[in-house]
Specification:
By secondary structure, this protein is mainly alpha-helical. It contains eleven helices and three strands, in the order βββααααααααααα. The chain has a three-stranded mixed sheet with strand order 1-2-3, with no helix packed on it.
């Protein structure tokens, strides 16, 4: 992480023009911070970014608003507050292992921010799209089951049981909230996991197919090529970025 210290702002309305807090700048780190001082207490702005393929981002990220504001009220967001305080301490006074600690804390911030946003009172936070599925206890339980064990031969009835709903009621609610029928989403998630394993592991194709729920490497290869437009071996050789396959929206 790069610490940038611009000239102090003379008033709240005075813009701080240089240096920019821009992690995307050439030679910059993924996260950067700008510390602004003056007659009052210093203010530190942390900015960062993740490189994603917009066409293959997770639907949760596509459903996020352009801006998430979390008011710093006392007693709210304790986990996020603790992570920010730990990060501030490491940035203010780096010690042995600071680079590793800062990197881990930065990775923690995003899920803590999203969790705090989901938990915010509805009058301050409108949750829509895929996030609504996570806010629904039954559908969230079914999604958790798929995510934890994609290789399991899930059926709509079995997933409905996890959600505490009948087969038909579960299928309707899942499709309305997630945007895909349950088994379509299961296939989508399996292929996303397969793509990640192709990039991150040296396991043979047969092992990857088994780990994501396909009975043979040929069945996995056929499904993968239909979704990604590339055979798994070529996808691995060409070093394609780890990505989620494009979700197919279903009108309801």
């Amino acid at each position: 992480m790069t610490i940038l210290r611009p000239s102090p702002a003379r008033a709240p309305t005075t813009p701080v023009d240089e240096p920019r807090c821009d992690p995307a700048a050439e030679g910059g780190d993924l996260f950067a911070s700008a510390s602004v001082g003056g007659s009052g207490a210093p203010t530190v702005t942390l900015c960062g970014g993740y490189e994603l393929d917009p066409a293959r981002a997770h639907p949760l990220l596509r459903d996020l608003p352009d801006l998430i504001h979390l008011p710093a009220r006392l007693g709210t967001h304790p986990e996020l507050r603790a992570a920010v305080e730990l990060l501030g301490a490491e940035v203010h006074k780096p010690r042995l292992g600071a680079d590793t600690i800062v990197s881990a804390l930065l990775d923690m911030l995003l899920p803590y921010i999203l969790r705090s946003w989901f938990d915010a009172p509805r009058e301050h936070c409108t949750v829509s799209g895929w996030a609504r599925a996570l806010a629904n206890p039954g559908i969230s339980a079914a999604l958790d089951a798929i995510h934890r064990d994609p290789a399991h031969p899930w059926t709509v009835a079995e997933l409905g049981g996890r959600a505490g709903l009948s087969r038909a009621a579960f299928a309707r609610r899942f499709t309305a909230l997630v945007g895909q029928p349950p088994l379509t989403y299961l296939t989508w998630w399996r292929l996303a996991g397969g793509a990640r394993l192709l990039r991150e592991a040296d396991a043979p194709l047969s092992e990857i197919a088994s780990r994501v729920g396909y009975g043979s490497e040929f069945a996995f290869a056929d499904a993968f090529k239909r979704e990604y437009g590339l055979a798994p071996g070529r996808y691995r050789r060409e070093g394609c970025p780890v990505a989620f396959p494009q979700a197919k929206a279903v009108k309801t």
